[in-house]
Design goal:
The protein is α/β, with parallel strands linked by helices and 591 residues long. It is 44% helix and 14% strand. It has an 8-stranded mixed sheet with strand order 1-8-7-3-4-5-6-2. It has an 8-stranded parallel beta barrel with strand order 9-10-11-12-13-14-15-16, surrounded by 5 helices. Helix 14 packs across helix 15 (399-419). The longest helix is centred in the N-terminal third of the chain and has 24 residues, at 40-63. The radius of gyration is 24 Å and the shape is globular. Its EC number is 2.7.3.9. Belongs to the PEP-utilizing enzyme family. Residues 256-544 form the PEP-utilising enzyme C-terminal domain. This is Phosphoenolpyruvate-protein phosphotransferase.
């Protein structure tokens, strides 16, 4: 292959140089076939049998997961649930009966319908779960054509693993000691491949759309999982430069990890908590190993995805109490269900909305579907008896919603009291400030809760009126837009006047250019991706609070994004030239 540079998404930081080794290629095409009259029942039975066989295959894969990955085996359970998900199997069966088409085509069409529904979802974590559905459907397609899933090729030497996609079952069946890095054509920032790679500290780049066309088995490649690049057939200069960068990064990682358990305290003594955003209990070891002060945002949606019915109270309680126990005495903040409408809850009827991002989602959904909400609140409250837990309501727009949610919470507390079930009666309750309306009345809201978490990702999108996932307007996603900086400052000041704490969540909190501005506002905590914790704590410990306050004053006096970005880049780069080599930043757009 000729030299080429491919762009993807870095999901596990690092650099590797080695030979490409493909373990699977693009999924097979599906043919459209009409079935004979009267054959629908047998075709549906064929589909159901294939799904059942795949579920059995996955169960065997889960039971044979190697010891070093056993904590992640539960991820395979979600794929087993997809095999029974009515949104997939029942929908495909209905297509067979309605349109007299073969099972393969019906399944393919059902997957595309799910993908279309997921594409409208704001939360990237939930949106990217469609990859799980595609992966399971591909296994079912293999069974439908009369074959077992082909075992993945295993390498004889250390390699750079290439694949169209890697399912949890695939990845866990590979000899990790022989894998220097991953690169896949599919996947996004929150893919399970990324979670596994970060856990194993293996560099990984996903979403490399032209990977299969541009890379051949045995090609020499560089995986730059700092910038999200794959360099195919590098020249001698690139090899030398990347060998040096790899050495620098590995030394930097060793250095910051040695100090990761030290407090996140500035040079002049200002200390904040550095917590993690996670979706799975299996991520807790990475949080603790990286020196995290707890979990500032536990996304509870995962347990509700790709199921025949929503989880029971006991299932949720088992998950939440395990998490609280593992983290104790550190805090875990449980965010209540933040789904868009009822797209992910199989037992609810489908709700068509012209604009799901502004529709029945998060707290609005919970207030509409109180049976689901109460079940989750009971589980969270009961889990609070096993550790330090807090409760977080998302997407609060005003006092009425908040008071409704608190009223239901108090009713659930009374139910637990009557049943004699233990819980922490003083469990802190907070809200996500992520809507402009909540910003404007933040002082009133602060009088009703124990803490604020600022959801910067949504706040930026809703305040600036842009869809970050839309490539035509994504350049307008500007974290240091004057309106955003002033909004965050207003919320922090309102909270502190009322005597409550503020945690900043989202990518802004882990951006080394944005962090000093947040520090200048005297925030109390940040909650970031687990893999970012050691590096951010390292930068925090080399930061001067008074300098951050001075930078904030300058930023607040500026009126354009370009002025602020230029000012911030200059100041921060001069202070951290070496560290910034290993960080990516959102500050790549001007106004």
């Amino acid at each position: 292959m000729a030299r080429e540079i491919l762009q993807g998404i870095a999901v596990s930081a690092g650099v590797s140089i080695g030979k490409a080794f493909f373990t699977n290629r693009r999924r097979r095409s599906v043919s459209f076939e009409i079935i004979p009259p009267g054959a629908a029942d047998s075709e549906v039975a064929r589909l159901e049998q294939a799904a059942s066989d795949v579920r059995d295959d996955l169960a065997r894969a889960r039971d044979n997961v190697p010891a070093e990955l056993r904590d992640h085996a539960a991820i395979i359970n979600s794929h087993m649930m997809i095999c029974q998900d009515p949104k997939l199997i029942r929908a495909a069966s209905q297509r067979i009966r309605d349109h007299h088409i073969c099972a393969e085509w019906a399944l393919d069409q059902a997957v595309e319908a799910i993908a279309a529904a997921f594409s409208a979802i704001e939360d990237p974590y939930i949106r990217e779960r469609v990859q799980d559905v595609r992966a399971v459907a591909e296994r079912i397609q293999t069974r439908l054509v009369g074959r077992h899933a082909e075992p993945l090729r295993t390498p004889d030497e250390r390699i750079v693993l290439m694949a169209h996609d890697l399912t949890p079952a695939d990845a866990m069946g590979l000899p990790t000691v022989k894998i220097m890095s991953f690169a896949t054509a599919e996947g996004g920032k929150t893919s399970h491949t990324g979670i596994l790679a970060r856990s194993l500290q293996i560099p990984a780049v996903v979403g490399v759309s032209s990977l299969e066309e541009s890379v051949a088995d045995g090609d020499l490649v560089i995986v730059d999982a700092l910038r999200g690049l794959i360099v195919v057939d590098p020249d001698e200069t690139e090899l030398a430069d990347y060998t040096d960068l790899k050495y620098q990064f590995e030394n930097y990682q060793k250095s910051i990890r040695r100090q990761s358990t030290l407090p996140a305290e500035t040079l002049d003594g200002y200390r904040i908590d550095v917590q993690a955003n996670i979706e799975l209990v299996e991520e807790v070891p990475q949080v603790l190993d990286g020196g995290g002060d707890g979990v500032g945002l536990y996304r509870t949606e995962y347990a509700f995805l790709n199921r025949r019915t929503s989880p029971t109270e006991e299932e949720l309680y088992d998950e939440y109490s395990q998490l609280a126990g593992l983290l104790s005495p550190r805090r875990v903040v449980f965010r209540t269900l933040d789904v868009g409408a009822d797209k992910m809850l199989s037992e609810q009827s489908q709700l068509e909305e012209p604009n799901p991002a502004l529709g029945l989602r998060a707290i609005r959904f919970c207030l509409r579907h109180q049976d689901v909400f109460r079940r989750q609140l009971r589980a969270i409250l009961r889990a609070s008896a096993h550790g330090s837990a807090s409760l977080l309501f998302p997407m609060i727009s005003g006092l009425h919603e908040l008071r409704q949610a608190k009223h239901i919470l108090n009713e659930v507390r009374a139910e637990l009291d009557a049943a004699g079930l233990p819980y922490d009666p003083d469990m802190p309750v907070g809200i996500m400030v992520e809507l402009p309306s909540a910003v404007m009345i933040s002082e009133a809201l602060a009088q009703e809760v124990d803490f604020f978490s600022i959801g910067t990702n949504d706040l930026i999108q809703y305040s600036l009126g842009i869809d970050r996932g839309n490539k035509h307007v994504s350049y307008l996603y500007q974290p240091l837009h004057p309106a955003i900086v002033r909004s965050i400052k207003y919320v922090v000041d309102s909270a502190h006047r009322m005597g409550i704490s503020v945690c900043v969540c989202g990518e802004v909190a882990s951006d080394p250019y944005c962090l000093p501005i947040l520090l200048g506002m005297q925030i109390d905590a940040i909650s970031i991706a687990p893999q970012a914790i050691p590096g951010i704590k390292h930068i925090l410990r080399r930061t001067n609070m008074e300098e951050c306050k001075e930078l904030l004053r300058d930023v607040l006096s500026a009126s354009t994004v370009s002025t602020i970005n230029r000012m911030v880049k200059e100041t921060i780069y001069n202070r951290f030239p070496e560290e910034l080599t290993f960080f990516s930043s959102m500050l790549d757009q001007d106004d």
